[in-house]
Amino acid sequence: MKRLKITDHHEWTPRKLRKQERKIKNAPLRQRVMAVRLVMEGYLGKEVASMVNVCRQTVSHYVSLFNEGGLELLLHRDVAPLREPFLTEEQQEEVKHLVLTTTPAELGWDIASAWNTKILQSYVYHRYGISISREALRKLLHRKGLSWTRPTYTLAKGDPDRQKNFERQMDLIKKKLIGPDSVLLYIDETPIRSYHVLRTTWSEVGHQKQVPTFGHHAHVSLFGAVNVHDGETVLHPAGAANATTFLDFLRVLKERYPDRLIVLVLDNARIHHAKMVREFLREEGQCFHFISLPPYSPQRNPIERLWKWLKDTVIANVFHKDRNDIAQAIARFVDYIHERPEEVLQRLGCAA
Predict the structure, then answer these.
(1) CA gap 114, 104 in Å, rounded
(2) Nearest Cα residue to 285 out of 262, 269, 267, 265
(3) What is the dihedral sign for C-alpha 246, 248, 252, 257?
(4) Are the C-beta atoms of 288 and 187 separated by less than 8 Å?
(5) What percentage of the chain reaches a pLDDT higher than 70?
(6) Chain segment 157-201, per-residue pLDDT in tens
(7) Are the C-beta atoms of residues 237 and 220 closer than 8 Å to each other?
């Protein structure tokens, strides 16, 4: 086999070519210059091919380009003209609108409740008479600003007008009602179950972390109140969430804030309006004032974010064998947040 030779250096030396290599960011083009330089330094074609990880024929082609036109021709790359898209721009927009606003079942095309590339592929062929691969469809949807993500729940019954009225009401209450002799608290209750939360965590590749379980599950109900002005919290565990334990929580709040008007923002759960609660409020009416959240509006209650923080921090991915174990985990969290009211406000999105 004929030895490769540089017949025209075009005023380039191995040293100059090495410097040029460092300036080239495109790896394939840098590889071309390296191959020519190595041949110029005396290496055999098969040795160069092994060093730059290409075949000898490719090295020979690089040398021929350099001999003919120097570095300019060596680095020139012909770019194929753009291929006409399978679908016109108008058709692409129709596909995007289809995916975002309908389901295969609604169109009577398939029983599925969501589009995937397989179903979409058959629909496009039927609708436009165009055969297109699933990968091409995936790339098309990405170009149109879509991504393959898991949906999230949203409460469909939330009334935007009632939520806006609630915000205006709260602004007025904060200005007119809340003062040195009163306190504004957002309250709620949540179940803490031993199997409640699994979250993404680190584990060895091929070995998914396993959290033991008995098959029957202990749980603790937790009542909570948070002051969005100073980050102070009151958490009260109970065996269950019912009218009786809710009254116990109200008495805890009364002891915590004696001789003050306690303004409570809470949802419309039945236990908040039970008969025994109404009787209690008639007797203690001068101490409490209830403000109901709009229906289906948990996002208006900052304490929901406290519950998520609690469960992600001390409950997730851990086996709790009984109620006492859960209660100890909650107690650790309570001790932590009581010392960090500023962090509480940041977590709730209420920091100044």
Answers:
(1) 6
(2) 262
(3) positive
(4) no
(5) 89
(6) 667 888 889 888 888 888 877 888 999 999 999 988 765 566 666
(7) yes
Which spans in 106-241 are helix H?
117-128, 134-143, 160-176
In this structure, the number of other CB atoms found within 10 A of the CB of residue 14 comes to 16
Q: Is 210 exposed, middle or buried (0-12, 13-18, 19+ CB in 10 A)?
A: exposed
- How many angstroms separate the CA atoms of 291 and 278, rounded? 14
Report the C-alpha gap between 345 and 350 in whole angstroms. 5
Say which DSSP state 313 is in: I
90, two tokens: 């108008």
The CATH code of the domain at 160-200+214-348 is: 3.30.420.10
| Contact by Cβ (8 Å): 319, 197 | no
Question: Burial code of 97-106, b = ≥16 C-beta within 10 A, e = fewer?
Answer: ebbeeebbee
Mean pLDDT of the chain: 87
Radius of gyration, alpha carbons of the chain: 34
pLDDT surpasses 60 at 215: no
Query: Following DSSP, what letter does each residue of 253-310 receive, concatenated?
Result: HHHHSTTSEEEEEE---GGGG-HHHHHHHHHSTTTEEEEEPPTT-GGG-THHHHHHHH
Say if pTM beats, i.e. exceeds, 0.90: no
| Cα dist from 85 to 2, 19, 93, 108, whole Å | 45, 41, 13, 28
pLDDT at 313: 84
β-strand 233-238 against 261-266: which pairing, if any?
unpaired
